[in-house]
Design brief:
mainly alpha
Length: 126
C-alpha cells in the first residue's frame, strides 16, 4: 500500500507540474498513473479470487453467485476509475453516463440472483 501511495503522490506532482506547461501532458500522466495502479490491483485479484473460492467450498453458496459478485465488483472498480478520469478531464457528462451504464450493467448481471431470491421467498410463503 505504501508503494501505491508513493506512486500516486508522484503522479499527482508530475501531472500538476506538466499541467501548467501543457495540460494534455498532465492528463496523460494521470491516466498512465491510474492504469499502473489498476494493473497492480489486478495482480492482487488472484488472492481475492482464491479466498472467495475457498469460502464458497466451505459454504453451500453456488459458485455462480460468487462469479456474479466478482463481476459486479469488477464493473464497479472499472466504472469508478473511468468516471474519475472523465471528470478529471472535464467531461462530467461522460462520467455520469459511465456511472449510469455501470449501474444498469450491474442490474442486468444480478438478475439471476434476484430471480433466485424471489423464488426462495415465494417458496417460503407458500
Amino acid at each position: 500500500m505504501i508503494s501505491i501511495g508513493i506512486v500516486s503522490i508522484a503522479v499527482v506532482l508530475l501531472a500538476t507540474q506538466f499541467k501548467s506547461v501543457k495540460p494534455e501532458y498532465g492528463i496523460f500522466i494521470s491516466v498512465a498513473g491510474c492504469i499502473f495502479i489498476f494493473v497492480f490491483l489486478l495482480s492482487k485479484l488472484s488472492d481475492i479470487v482464491s479466498l472467495v473460492d475457498k469460502l464458497s467450498d466451505l459454504t453451500s453458496v453456488s459458485k455462480e453467485y460468487i462469479k456474479i459478485l466478482l463481476k459486479i465488483t469488477g464493473i464497479t472498480f472499472i466504472s469508478e476509475i473511468a468516471s474519475d478520469i472523465s471528470k478529471d478531464c472535464g467531461y462530467t457528462a461522460v462520467a455520469n453516463q459511465v456511472q449510469i451504464f455501470a449501474k444498469v450493467s450491474i442490474l442486468v448481471i444480478s438478475l439471476p440472483v434476484f430471480t433466485e431470491l424471489i423464488s426462495k421467498v415465494g417458496g417460503l410463503l407458500s
